[in-house]
Input
Amino acid sequence: MKNDSENNLMEKIVSLAKRRGFVFPGSEIYGGLANSWDYGPLGVELKNNIKKLWWDRFVHRRDDMVGLDAALIMNPKVWEASGHLSHFSDPLIECKNCHSRFRLDQIATSKEGDEISCPQCGKKKMGAPRQFNLMFKTFIGPAEEAANVAYFRPETAQAIFVDFKNILDTSRRQLPFGVAQIGKAFRNEITPGNFIFRTREFEQMEIEYFIPKPARDEDWSSFFEYWRKEMQEWIAEAGIDGTKIHETEIADGERAHYSKRTIDFEFEYPFGQKELYGLAYRTDFDLKNHFKEAPYKDGQTGEAFWPHVIEPSLGVDRTLLAVLLSAYTEDGDRVYLKLKPKLAPYQAAVFPLLHNKPQLVDAARKIYGDLRKKFVVAWDDRGNIGKRYYSQDEIGTPYCITVDFDTLGDGDDKKLKDTVTVRDRDTGKQERIAIAELEPFLHAKIYR
Ligand code: GAP
Output
């Protein structure tokens, strides 16, 4: 059971997300659609910044990685070969009294033979468990016939395997190298919920890192350990609270059908400790199932073989949730999102001290226009400065820039002409910076 303050935190995040335009309930004016969420004006900025940070870190800043952006709907044979049509299922159990459906592994007690009570109605009238396939079905073309059945991809990974040969031929990579992809995935989850934690439509950031055929376990486990550290560093870079992360070894029999070893990176959400990311050793399972002939030839020995794969798999939505939960800070009456400055929807905000003094407004507009060429910047001239700070704090804007009478040279201290006040979100401290220094100042702070 979670205590009140932990439950409250989730309520506060969901309410702030809606009120400030991070995440809205999907299709709301039609009564909503259960567990569908839309990213609003600030949410899409935060989400894009997360994806950009990941892509920069794992693709652009490395020379052993290339990218891919594949189709969402693939030939159904892909999912036959990958094992998803036969194995990608969760155990479903239905209450014969109230007809609520649950995932067996989420409600079963550890004692075998226990009769399970329905979490909804409390009756002990649960039916026999059955495997429920999570693949999201659709039809291609106008005829809804078996021959036209297709599936939305349940993971981005599979396209990387299917395109492996094309990527290899066009990018001329030698092992080890990786392929990264960001995109939507779909699963007909039995129990979606907890805001954006588990939805039927979500986004993934996945890497398939191809390594030589291992002769001994150390040959793959050293790569596995390397990617484990990379994930730990990513978690720190994204500003996710590392003290709430737990790495859990997934036991034999509980791993996905393709995995020889999996570590889940779990996060302490207010609703419990649950999966944030996964790291798996997929062996040569996927490439072997897709390619009859070995798709890779060793440059020196000429030996052809199926490379093995280490897979760091990240959910974008769960990242955003963990980032918001980690950033949310209350300090007396002050509420602020302590987001990493490069992830914040706005990196700075510019205010004229008073909205009805044209000289202040003109000078502030000029700074706003110049900074927007380099940063994402908000403008605010409503209400008093205190309210504007409060409003920017709540959405995580790291720097607020105020143009006042000193800036114009009309204050007591003439030396302050052409300077502005820059206020730091986390400390609340203000300092005077020359307008000409603003851009390098912000650049150094945001990209330090
Ligand atoms: N290719 C491997 C794979 O898909 P997974 O553990 O099933 O592995 C990877 O999914 C990540 O995708 C998870 O760690 C999580 O971050 C995210 N994810 C999975 N299912 C999700 C869902 N229903 N809603 C939101 N995110 C999900």
